[in-house]
Structure formats: C-alpha cells, structure tokens
Specification:
The structure holds two protein chains of two kinds. By secondary structure, chain A is mostly helical. Chain A is built from nine helices and seven strands, in the order ββαββαβααααββααα. In chain A, β1 and β2 form a beta hairpin. In chain A, α6 packs across α9 and α7 packs across α9. By secondary structure, chain B is mainly α. Chain B is built from seven helices and three strands; from the N terminus they run βαββαααααα. A two-stranded antiparallel sheet of chain B has the order 2-3. In chain B, a hairpin with a 5-residue loop joins β2 and β3. In chain B, α2 runs antiparallel to α4 and α4 packs across α7. The N terminus of chain B is likely disordered. Classes of the chains: A mainly alpha, B mainly alpha. Chains A and B meet through β1, α2, α3 and α5 of A and β1, α2 and α4 of B. β1 of chain A pairs parallel with β1 of chain B, so a sheet runs across the interface.
C-alpha cells in the first residue's frame, strides 16, 4: 500500500539578507554517495589501563588529528556545497564583493555562481538552513520522521507507542541500512523508495519503526 | 507541487541579553575608537587557517614546542603569509564600522582605503598588535562559536 504524503516539500527560503532561494531536492543516492565517500579522519588511540583491563581510548587532542580535522571540515564544506548547489536556484546574485576577497588573496578563485553564493555570500546560519531544507526534501530526516509520528498518533494500551521502552538492540547500522529495511518491509524496491520525496521516505521509516515496536509489544503481552 | 516558504525566525532579546551581546560584539581601542565586530564566513576562515598550517600557528603549541619551522613542521613563509591573510580578512570583513570621517582622507593617502572602506586595512593602522590579536580571537569565537545553530 502506498503512503499518502504527510508533509509537502519546502520549495523556497529567504536568507537573512533578503535573498530568495528556490529549494528543490536531490536524489538520495547523491547524498548517500557523498556521505560514504567523505568519512571523517579517525583519531589515534591510546591503550590505557582501566580497572585492571586495557582499553583503547581515542586521543582527540592529538595535534595531527586536529590538523586533519580542520582540513577535513574545509574540504567537506566545499564538497557538500557542490552537491547541494544542484538543488537550489538563485537569481541576480551580486558577486562583485568577491573580487575584493580575490584581490587580497583571501580566496584563491571565484567558483561557479551558485557555489560561490553558498560558500562565500550567505551566512553560516542561512547555509545550514538551506542544507537542512534540501535534506528534508530529499531523504529521511529526524524532523520528517517526527512529523509523521505525530500525524500517526499511534498508541498502545492507552499510551503513545514511543513512550513504551523496549530493549536496545545490540545491532548497529547506518541510516541507509534502516532505510533499505524499511523499503523491504513495505515491499518496495530500493529504487522505488529513493524516488519518493524526503517527507514521504521519512513517513515510511516512521511507519516501519512504529509497526516494529507494536509487534514487539504485542509479542511481549502474550 | 505546492510548497511553503520558511522565513528566518527572529528572537527577541531581553535588555540584559542585549547589553551582554553589545559588550561581546564591541571593542574600544586605546585610540578611543569603538569597533563593532561580526562573524565572518567560517568556510573562508577555515580555508585560510588550513592554508596557513592550522590553529596552532595562531594559538601556539600547548606543550611549548615550536609550531613553525623545521622543528614544528609548518613552513615559516606559508605561516606568515597565511597569518597575514587571516588578519586582513578578519579586520577587513569582521568589523562593521567605516573609518571616522576625519581620518578618511589620511587613510586614502597612505593607500589603505579600498573601493569599499569596510574592506580597507584602516583598523590595522589604528589598533595595537595586542588589540588586533583580541579582535582576531573574538571574531573567530563568534564565527566558530558553540552557540551557533
């Protein structure tokens, strides 16, 4: 059974400087591929003794690791902007102020218009908001899941389903794994799932999560 | 497909919070001029710091070991050039104010007055090294601060 759309996608955003940005969506495979190909560097570990046993503790203050993280965040920002710029449209952007930055050697070149706009013109807050909206429109998000859960109003034995605690599984997996499990549970192919909008994907995951929880509660009741 | 538009939400500050924000965002120089500071683009600042050789070039190593040079591993020329660019960026784009009118001609004469006075290096002409260091620290804190969304 196909799910009705719980919430429509957001299609515009106005920056704090009053610039209107048309927001679209990305195919989620672009996002999944980006995340998979940009893992953060791992800190070195130090083996320390803890109550007679030994434990590998990450050294987050390691100078080489910190330098690698700065480089990672810088590269990540550029690559992330390159991906999300495909989902926006802006008009009549004035890039002239970037010439001053270029002349001072502060930036090394002026990239393509939409990328320059996101990287160098909008504020950090506006950039975060734009990225958040594109993610919301394109893939499963916690916001989308929460909205769907509120709309479902699912309860069990008089209390909201989410308020019933269930044992935490020992299994760990990525969001993509859960999304694929959701598609399988709904008897959808992965391709069909990915074609859905972000809010719809989120609603499908919310439905899956709640249904699994209810199943567990029913089994426990017996 | 119909959609919706999200406006930027504005938060209303109390008088006490407003006073606190004004003191954090302003600095009064020894020469008597008050400067209003603002955050800069974190993407640009991170790039500059990266090109320079990392935060330790600004902060200095915690363990007292050299950061720049053969012992520290960061090329001295790259660090110096990079640090100057960080200072130019922060004093040019991290300050809201224009030069005072009575100084405008003077700064134009000595070549610090660019097309847009906010981008000029006039602040570096009037601030001490210690004050520039403080401006650097505060603008970086505002830009990378933990209370950002």
């Amino acid at each position: 059974m196909r799910f009705m759309i719980i919430r429509q996608i957001v299609n515009s955003y106005r920056t704090s400087d009053g610039i209107n940005v048309a927001i679209g969506r990305l195919h989620r495979s672009l996002i999944d591929n980006f995340v998979a190909s940009n893992p953060p560097p791992l800190p070195p570990v130090e083996r320390i003794e803890v109550f007679g046993d030994f434990e590998d503790v990450p050294k987050y203050d390691d100078p080489d690791y910190q330098a690698a993280m700065i480089e990672y965040h810088s590269a990540f920002a550029h690559e992330q902007v390159a991906v999300v710029s495909q989902a926006i449209e802006v008009y009549d952007i004035d890039l002239r102020e970037l010439n001053d930055l270029l002349n001072e050697g502060i930036i090394q070149y002026i990239p393509e218009e939409k990328i320059a706009f996101l990287l160098y013109i909008v504020s950090d807050r506006d950039l975060s908001s734009v990225i958040e909206l594109i993610m919301y429109n394109s893939t499963v998000t916690e916001q989308g899941i929460e909205e769907a859960e509120q709309a479902f109003k699912a309860s069990w034995n008089g209390m909201p389903v989410k308020s019933w605690s269930i044992p935490k599984s020992l299994a760990e997996f990525s969001y993509e794994y859960e999304a694929r499990s959701t598609a399988h549970w709904h008897k959808m192919t992965w391709r069909e799932f990915c074609e859905e909008t972000g809010p719809e994907q989120s609603a499908l995951v919310a439905h899956y999560r709640i249904s699994r929880r209810i199943e567990w509660l029913e089994v426990r009741k017996r | 497909m119909a959609g919706s538009e999200k406006e930027v939400e504005e938060t209303v500050k109390t008088d006490e919070e407003q006073d606190k924000v004004e003191s954090v965002n302003t600095i009064v120089l020894e020469c008597g001029i008050t400067l209003t500071l603002r955050e800069v683009r974190s993407t640009i600042l991170l790039d500059l710091i990266n090109r320079m050789g990392g935060f330790d070039v600004i902060k200095g190593s915690k363990k007292g070991k050299p950061v720049v040079g053969a012992a520290g591993g960061v090329d001295a020329g790259k660090a110096t050039d990079g640090f100057l660019k960080v200072v130019n960026y922060v004093t040019g784009w991290g300050i809201v104010d224009d030069p005072p009118e009575d100084k405008a001609q003077e700064y134009e004469f000595i070549g610090t007055f660019g097309e847009n006075p906010v981008r000029a290096r006039w602040v570096q002409e009037i601030a001490t090294a210690k004050e520039i260091s403080e401006i650097l620290g505060r603008v970086m804190a505002m830009t990378f601060g933990s209370d950002k969304d």
